[in-house]
């Protein structure tokens, strides 16, 4: 990834709807060759920004620069972007080959070149030989691969993905994330990805923009977002967190940052132990910090049981002052 080159620059962007929803004062630089993910709950404005970059929504004010060119007032077909949607948007009456060829034909690409390009992109997404199949003959994950391939064939400067994997089951979703990351790295394409799934954002992104109510809460790498959440909202939104309210402040502690041992300063009672695979989730009550959740290695604490006493301390915590 090349952090020194700005691929997309958004300056003071505003897009609001008659009901008052939307975004304003949006400033964002997207680096060449990175996957930048906009993460947040439904209605926070992340898809609005993506659709405005694509040209499907018209900005009320501000500017969008791609490759040094102002595209703010250009229609979608004049922008160097390609968009992949949640719903695949494949034409059911067309074969895979016809779906993939459609955009290339509009660009007057020759038949031989179209055939060669399609063969190449199908090999790239590990789906050779499906040219004559119809979308209904493919699984959801395969259809989404074809939708991504169709966008790749048009060689966009920026690929835009709006919740592309949310309709897939968990295992296929994980596989698609891995494949997207490999494709992005191989082609060094710039990707702007929208999701409400924090695990998805953490697993594929070079940088994450955490959004809330039409505004940015924090921009950073997955490690920065997870280890150093800038606000109480980000701390509570990303990953598991114990939120301990004190007068005038909130103390945030990750479950994995709770240490257990006989000589630790604080005491409580175990009220639940859940086997989570390679670790145990331990619920602790009757503490001076309220109810707590801790993640502990199973092998180290195999003797923990419900109703037993426990001693603990916080290895790391962040404090957020309440607004006056």
From TrEMBL:
Which EC class is the enzyme in? translocase
Origin organism is Bifidobacterium samirii
What name appears for this protein in its UniProt entry? Answer: ABC-type quaternary amine transporter
Kindly list the GO molecular function terms attached to this UniProt entry. Answer: ABC-type quaternary ammonium compound transporting activity; ATP binding; ATP hydrolysis activity
Gene3D superfamilies given in the database record: 2.40.50.100, P-loop containing nucleotide triphosphate hydrolases (3.40.50.300)
Q: Which domain of life is it from?
A: Bacteria
Q: Which UniProt keywords apply?
A: ATP-binding, Nucleotide-binding, Transport
User: Per its UniProt record, what PANTHER family does this chain match?
Assistant: SPERMIDINE/PUTRESCINE IMPORT ATP-BINDING PROTEIN POTA, SPERMIDINE_PUTRESCINE IMPORT ATP-BINDING PROTEIN POTA
Specify the ABC transporter domain's residue ranges.
8-238
EC number, as in UniProt? 7.6.2.9
Question: Do you know which InterPro entries this protein is assigned to?
Answer: AAA+_ATPase (IPR003593), ABC_SmlMolc_Importer (IPR050093), ABC_transporter-like_ATP-bd (IPR003439), ABC_transporter-like_CS (IPR017871), Mo/tungstate-bd_C_term_dom (IPR008995), P-loop_NTPase (IPR027417)
């Amino acid at each position: 990834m090349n952090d020194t080159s700005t691929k997309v620059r958004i300056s003071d962007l505003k897009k609001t709807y008659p009901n008052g929803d939307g975004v304003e004062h949006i400033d964002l630089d997207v680096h060449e060759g990175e996957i930048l993910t906009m993460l947040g709950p439904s209605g926070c404005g992340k898809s609005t920004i993506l659709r405005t970059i694509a040209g499907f929504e018209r900005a009320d004010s501000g500017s969008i620069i791609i490759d040094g060119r102002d595209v703010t007032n250009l229609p979608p077909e004049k922008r160097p972007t390609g968009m992949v949607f949640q719903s695949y948007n494949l034409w059911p009456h067309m074969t895979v080959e016809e779906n993939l060829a459609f955009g290339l034909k509009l660009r007057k690409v020759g038949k031989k070149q179209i055939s060669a390009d399609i063969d190449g992109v199908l090999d790239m997404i590990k789906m050779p030989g499906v040219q004559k199949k119809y979308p209904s003959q493919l699984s959801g994950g395969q259809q989404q691969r074809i939708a991504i391939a169709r966008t790749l064939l048009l060689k966009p400067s920026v690929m835009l993905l709006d919740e592309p994997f949310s309709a897939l089951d968990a295992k296929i979703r994980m596989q698609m994330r891995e494949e997207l990351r490999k494709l992005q790295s191989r082609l060094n394409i710039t990707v702007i990805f929208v999701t409400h799934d924090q695990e998805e954002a953490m697993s594929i992104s070079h940088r994450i923009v955490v959004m809330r109510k039409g505004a940015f809460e924090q921009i950073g790498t997955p490690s920065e977002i997870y280890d150093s959440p800038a606000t109480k909202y980000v701390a509570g939104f990303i990953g598991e967190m114990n939120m301990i309210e004190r007068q005038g402040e909130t103390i945030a502690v990750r479950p994995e940052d709770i240490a257990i041992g006989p000589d630790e300063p604080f005491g409580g009672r175990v009220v639940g132990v859940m086997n989570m695979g390679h670790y145990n989730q331990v619920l602790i009550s009757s503490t001076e910090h309220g109810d707590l959740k801790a993640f502990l290695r199973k092998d180290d604490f195999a003797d923990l049981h419900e109703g037993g006493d426990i001693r603990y301390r916080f290895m790391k915590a962040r404090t957020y002052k309440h607004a006056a």
